[in-house]
Amino acid sequence: MKTEEKLLGDLCSIISTGSVSVNKITVKLEIKADHPLFAGHFPGNPILPGAATIQIIKELAELQTRRKLILAGAPVIKFISFMNPLVNNMADLTMELNLADDEKTGCTATLSHEGTTFCSFRGEFREMV
């Protein structure tokens, strides 16, 4: 994965990547605090929407697997803390991918920064046909 890759349009950029193991990666993200998405979510007190967080995870999984994916299921999605990009526009995403078979990819991911966890995710993606 290359740095400065844009995700969710230009909502965030990959600042750096690291590999923990073959299937596990870490990515440092910079969230664009003045992105138009935050004008409606919420004016004066922006927070990263849950749907945007899941989309970022999906796009990172696509970059890692080099396949177009669609969310097949997510039995665990926990939003633990709000992410306000005016307070902190940096985040660390740790992701582990497990290719269950040719069609499905298991994924666990955590979005956090400096000891604060924003989201914990466990789900499956399947290749888009």
Descriptive key words:
globular; seven-stranded antiparallel sheet; single chain; 1 helix
Helix percent band: 10-25%
Structural class: mainly beta
- SSE string, helix = H, strand = E? EEEHEEEE
Sheet with the most strands?
A: 7 strands, antiparallel
Question: What radius of gyration results from the CA coordinates?
Answer: 14 Å
Please explain how this structure is put together:
This protein has 129 residues and is mainly beta. It has one domain: Thiol Ester Dehydrase, Chain A (Roll). Helix content is 12%, strand content 47%. It is built from one helix and seven strands, in the order E-E-E-H-E-E-E-E. Strands 1-2-3-5-6-7-4 form a seven-stranded antiparallel beta sheet. Strand 1 and strand 2 form a beta hairpin. The longest helix is centred in the middle third of the chain and has 16 residues. The two termini are 23 Å apart. The mean pLDDT is 92.
Break the fold down into its secondary structure elements and pairings.
Layout: E1 6-7, E2 12-19, E3 24-31, H1 50-65, E4 69-79, E5 90-99, E6 104-113, E7 116-127
Antiparallel strand pairs: 1-2, 2-3, 3-5, 4-7, 5-6, 6-7
Structure summary:
This protein is mainly β. The chain is built from 1 helix and 7 strands; from the N terminus they run E-E-E-H-E-E-E-E. A 7-stranded antiparallel beta sheet has the order 1-2-3-5-6-7-4.
